[in-house]
Amino acid sequence: MDFRDSFNYLEKKDYFNFSKKRLRLFSNVLRQTLKPISEKVIVIGDTGHENFGLSTKLSAKYFLACENIGVDAKVYLQNPKERGESANPEIIQAMKNLPENNIIVANLSNKFGSMKHLGNSFRSFCKEKNHRFISTTSLGFITNEMEEFLYNTLDIDYKRLSKKHAKLKEIFDEGDEVRITTEIGTDLRIGIKKKTAISADGLYHEPGSGGNLPSGEVYIPPRKKQVWGNVVIDGSSRTIERTNLIDKPFNMKIKDGEITKIEGDSFGVHSLLDSLKWAWNNSKYGWGVKRIGELGIGLNPNAKLIGSTIVDEKVLGTAHIAIGSNHWMGGTIYSIIHLDQVFKKPVIEVDGNEIDIDKL
């Protein structure tokens, strides 16, 4: 849909009226994360699914928040996109026509969709055009009844939390090896020497910067194949189809950066194994399918495990590893998957020194 049709859709469905009660929150989110002054903003969303309409709601809320703080904005909606589908032509054209050094806000039930001639990566496109952006994806996993949990994760002091991010990033950047243990059996060593951590703190004030909301994560790619040990997943498990909350913990054994065995008997295990099998069968080069591409530490004090990775991976008191691609974060793994596996109550050591996250 073009801007006029998208606006009329939101108005007809009464999304604008419904969104007014969250005007303060989303105006504050924009002011803290992007600091818009005179930029043009395009808000991109989709029409969602029955009982999964958060993409549409967020798009309406951000559009109203832009108006509230005096920023010129337009909103564009498309039908929800699955893997392999293309973004709607109106959205591609709107992005193409947006002058450099402006802002994009994306809220998507699943994927953005192929951008055709604009490039293969939304993030790369924004960096090339010096656009600042915030994005919230995979919203199709969050039911309407769960949306309050997402709003709570956005209602934080971003500047204050950013200081904690900066301290943990510095520790990782200067470290050689991380060891992660838990009481239920995780014992994992990850080499990080000369790798650079990424602070997803939500503060995107510089041209070309951006990231996911909710914020609250510091993550880093392992050095080459330097991941060894066992990790017990007891939080949530991302697969190609959805994110599963874990009721029965399962083990992943890792040697030289690659998963050698997954042990457990639960729906989450079978769903993950099916995803890895699919990725192997559909990859031209399958070498990255079982590689560990990321270690991440959750820092958002308002986040809770709800069965949506974009929230789960940010929960304070959790850590996660990701299976698959990491080239976009400074790693060397290319894969058609990036599947985050979240576990609780990690004890984190860097070069033998335990890190007290609460005291950072």
Please name the defining characteristics of this protein.
globular; 28% helix; 27% strand; Rossmann fold; seven-stranded antiparallel sheet; alpha+beta; 360 residues; 2 domains; 19 strands
Description of the structure:
- By secondary structure, the protein is of the alpha+beta class.
- The protein has two domains: 3-154, 3-Layer(aba) Sandwich (Rossmann fold), CATH 3.40.50; 158-359, no CATH class.
- The protein has ten helices and 19 strands.
- Strands 14-13-10-6-5-18-19 form a seven-stranded antiparallel sheet, with helices on one face. Strands 7-9-15-16-17-11-12 form a seven-stranded antiparallel sheet, with helices on one face.
- The chain is globular, with a radius of gyration of 20 Å.
- The protein starts with a helix and ends in a 6-residue tail after the last strand.
- Termini separation comes to 46 Å
Helix content: 25-40%
Shape: globular
Number of domains: 2
Low-pLDDT runs of 5+ residues are: none
Strand percentage lies at 25-35%
Order of helices and strands: HHHEHEHEHEHHEEEEEEEEEEHEHEEEE
Structural class: alpha+beta
Oligomeric state of this protein: single chain
Write the layout of secondary structure elements.
Layout: H1 3-12, H2 15-19, H3 23-33, E1 40-46, H4 54-68, E2 72-78, H5 89-97, E3 103-107, H6 122-128, E4 132-136, H7 147-154, H8 158-174, E5 177-181, E6 187-191, E7 198-200, E8 210-212, E9 217-220, E10 227-233, E11 236-238, E12 243-245, E13 250-255, E14 258-263, H9 267-281, E15 292-298, H10 309-312, E16 318-324, E17 338-344, E18 347-350, E19 353-354
